[in-house]
Write a structure and sequence with these properties.
By secondary structure, the protein is of the alpha/beta class. It folds into 4 domains: 2-164, Glycogen Phosphorylase B (Rossmann fold, 3-Layer(aba) Sandwich), CATH 3.40.50; 171-352, 3-Layer(aba) Sandwich (Rossmann fold); 379-543, Glycogen Phosphorylase B (Rossmann fold); 550-734, Rossmann fold. Helix content is 44%, strand content 17%. The strands form 6 sheets. The chain has a 7-stranded parallel β-sheet, with helices on one face. It has a 7-stranded parallel β-sheet with strand order 20-18-16-21-22-23-24, with helices on one face. Helix 6 (179-189) packs across helix 11 (263-269) and helix 8 (211-219) packs parallel to helix 10 (240-249). The chain starts with a strand and ends with a helix.
Length: 751
């Protein structure tokens, strides 16, 4: 294969540059041709390398890097290669070697809002997004796990694209048998006395490596100890501002040395390596010091810092950084001479740790992933669109199970969303749509436009929407009819505002008679309303069975789980627990539930607790509970991933919803053997009646009726019968096949 490596600058002594060179040499040794695009090359060019010096200039670095990227793009169009590997972040890469930390995280946490208005920020943010965004095709070679959470937070990068590498230090850093002899000659050459200490710092980029912190720490040493301490700084950077600082603080015995080929001598000749970095994705020099037996003092933010503690070859300054901690630890480590112990620990670490294979592993991944990607290019692809994904929403759970089922059937999955909370499934390409607006409806409008534009440039075989919007091939109809609510539950003034116009237009794009969208109906309840307002052809409606997960079915040890749950939450044998589950507390009727709880007779209310689980703002309902005098009996949780335990531990599921197209939680309660009290407007309410697993509040809703049924069910001996009926119903009813049926219909629609 022909490989092109892109990096802004090459010089022999930078850690990033050394890694690039060894990876490229490994690729070359495996039979591949190596071309390098760079702005400057300092040093010998390896035999067989085709080094292209990119002839661009600019007043600012970010402008020069942009010109570099554009020039390389044109050059590759004229002289193509098989794979493009970036050592710096830029568009158009097949692989990126992630030696730098997350720029967006630093811009958000270490800079002001004003910084994010500058052209410099826009450039580097754009180039980082080109590599890490969910819709990028770039595979990422991660040299440390420390930065991965930041990339996931800002970009939702699919985990399948992030490949972890072991460290890759050179074996010439390991202390040789004649280490003592080398040490003596080195110290004699540089005039380091037997009772003197030598502290070294190695690394290019003095600001980032924390040189200012190190100088202040050396200056803080007691006078006698400071006079015996020499400090060598080895690396490629401008020392002038730090020399001025040294003069201002009255520090002596500090020497600056440019990058060198004999770093192993420094590692053997010194007494301590200091590395108080402000930001360090890896920190290869820490490992080099460790295997040389040199004690290390570093900040814990370094990607490789954990090796220091694991090997017992030094100490770490914990975050958030405090100068006083570094000062004290430097003094302690100089006075507490552990060089013999560190040498032995370093020797064992050097023998046993997997810290040498980075470059070979990177070369292997470049080869194997490139070969694996070829079949993917011919794979059929589906795009799923939903505004928000979080793990505990019913709509979101349905989306995920349907998408996974489609993936199982051989489709590649792309997801467009505004936000994603939780783990991204393997091989999902999640595209975080970068639009903002003050109002939701404006943001959704921009979301739809952005997705439409992106799909024009990157087409797929089918587009499936979990929210209503134009341009869908298939719509999963989990939401009720917006037009019906606007006509029956809102005044005429509401229908003149922009919010109404947006949602009405987006619903019309899906349901109007001449639309092309096929509609997956999860309940028959709303179909007459869509027919009334849009005259949607009936053949475009496809009714699905429910699709609850089988882990909601009561297990054989349900009694044991129930007992453990109630013990955990201190619910006594004579106590009662009502449970309400669902995001969107207003539509789910939490106010009705609280009023019902307050209506219970004193003796029943005192022994009845209410647990509420869902993603929504609990504040207004907690205030309502306080006004009603029941705050001590009501607990509101956020989303939970152990819902089956709650279903088994409760005595009654309450669901007095104002509006509910389906109500999956009703079925989950039924199959868990938990009696249900719900309003009959829920799309799945009829299953409660069919299973004889609870009671329904008839429409139009009356609070008094709900209150009466709540009390009756809590004090009724029939609860055990309702529970048994539900468990029996779980065995015979088709309540689980929604994902499979939906995937079948999607496959039929997209051909």
């Amino acid at each position: 294969m022909k490989l092109a490596f892109c990096l802004y600058k090459y010089f022999p002594y930078g850690g990033l540059q050394r890694d690039f060179l060894r990876i490229a040499e490994c690729c070359q040794a495996n039979g591949h041709d190596v071309r390098v695009y760079t702005l400057s090359w300092d040093g010998a060019i390896p035999v067989g390398f085709d080094v292209v010096i990119v002839p661009v200039n600019s007043l600012t670095n970010h402008s020069r890097y942009k010109k570099f990227s554009l020039w390389v793009k044109d050059a590759l169009a004229e002289s193509p290669v098989d794979i493009v590997i970036g050592i710096n972040k830029m568009p158009g890469l097949d692989f990126y070697y992630a030696a730098d930390s997350c720029y967006e995280e630093k811009a958000r946490t270490q800079r002001s809002w004003l910084y994010r208005k500058l052209p410099r920020y826009r450039h580097f943010a754009e180039y980082e997004r080109a590599v890490f965004a969910g819709d990028s095709r770039t595979e990422i070679l991660m040299i440390s796990e420390a930065q991965k959470p930041f990339f996931l937070r800002h970009y939702g990068t699919p985990a399948r694209r992030m490949h972890s590498l072991p460290p890759g230090i050179a074996r010439d850093r390991i202390a040789p048998p004649n280490a003592d002899e080398i040490r003596e000659k080195f110290r004699a050459e540089f005039g380091i006395g037997e009772t003197d200490f030598l502290v070294i710092m190695v690394g290019s980029g003095f600001i980032k490596k924390g040189l200012r912190r190190a100088l202040y720490a050396v200056r803080s040493l007691p006078a006698l100890l400071r006079r015996r301490t020499h400090f060598f700084v080895v690396g490629e950077d401008n020392p002038a501002p730090f020399k001025r600082l040294i003069f201002c603080i009255g520090l002596r015995n500090v020497r600056f040395l440019a990058g060198r080929d004999d770093i192993p001598r420094f590692l053997l000749g010194a007494d301590l390596m200091i590395h108080p970095a402000l930001d360090e994705a890896a920190g290869i020099v820490l490992l080099e010091a460790m295997v040389a037996g040199l004690p290390v003092l570093a900040t814990d933010i370094c990607g490789y810092a954990h090796y220091v503690q694991e090997a017992g070859v030094g100490n770490l300054i914990s975050s958030p950084f405090e100068q006083a901690s570094l000062n004290e630890e430097l003094k302690r480590m100089l006075l507490d001479d552990r060089r013999d112990e560190c040498r032995e620990n370093g020797r064992q670490f050097a023998e046993n740790a997997n810290i040498y294979a980075l470059h070979e592993e990177a070369s292997r991944i470049i080869e194997t992933v490139t070969l694996d990607r070829q079949p993917q290019q011919n794979k059929r692809e589906l795009a799923f669109c939903l505004y928000k994904y979080f793990p505990f929403g019913g709509l979101q759970r349905d989306f995920l199970r349907i998408a996974l089922e489609c993936q199982e059937r051989g489709y590649a999955i792309r997801v467009y969303t505004l936000s994603w909370e939780g783990e991204i499934p393997a091989d999902f390409q999640v595209v975080m749509v970068p639009v903002e607006a003050i109002t939701n409806h404006t943001r959704y409008e921009r979301f739809s436009e952005w997705v439409g534009s992106h799909l024009s440039a990157h087409p797929v075989d089918g587009v499936i929407g979990f929210n209503k919007m134009p341009g869908l091939d298939v719509y999963y109809a989990a939401d009720s009819c917006y037009e019906e609510k606007a006509r029956t539950q809102r005044g005429s003034l509401y229908r003149s505002i922009p919010r109404y116009r947006h949602f009405s237009r987006f619903e019309r794009a899906v349901f109007q008679a001449d639309a092309k969208t096929e509609i997956l109906m999860i309940s028959e309840v709303q179909k007459p309303l869509f027919l009334k307002h849009y005259k949607t052809p009936r053949e475009r409606f496809h009714t699905l069975p429910p699709g609850i997960s089988r882990d909601r079915v009561a297990p054989p040890d349900a009694d044991r789980v129930r007992a453990a749950f109630r013990a955990e939450y201190a619910i006594g044998d004579n106590d009662l627990l009502t449970l309400m589950i669902g995001s969107g507390f207003v539509t789910k009727g939490l106010d009705r539930a609280l009023l019902g709880h307050r209506s219970l007779p004193d003796d029943v209310r005192r022994r009845t607790r209410m647990f509420v689980i869902g993603q929504d703002n609990p504040s207004p309902f907690l205030r309502m509970a306080r006004r009603l005098g029941i705050a001590d009996q009501v607990t509101i949780f956020g989303g939970q991933d152990d819902i089956p335990r709650f279903l088994l531990g409760a005595d009654l599921l309450i669901h007095p919803a104002y509006n509910e197209n389906t109500g999956t939680v009703l079925l989950e309660a039924v199959v868990a053997g938990l009696p249900v009290l719900a309003t009959d407007i829920c799309g799945y309410a009829h299953y409660v009646r069919d299973a004889d697993a609870g009671k329904l509040v008839p429409a139009p809703f009356k609070q008094a009726t709900y209150n009466r049924l709540l009390l009756e069910m809590l004090i009724s001996d029939q609860r055990s019968c309702w529970g048994a009926n539900g468990r029996q119903y779980a065995e015979q009813a088709d309540l689980y096949s929604l994902p499979q049926r939906a995937a079948e219909l999607i496959g039929r629609v997209v051909g």
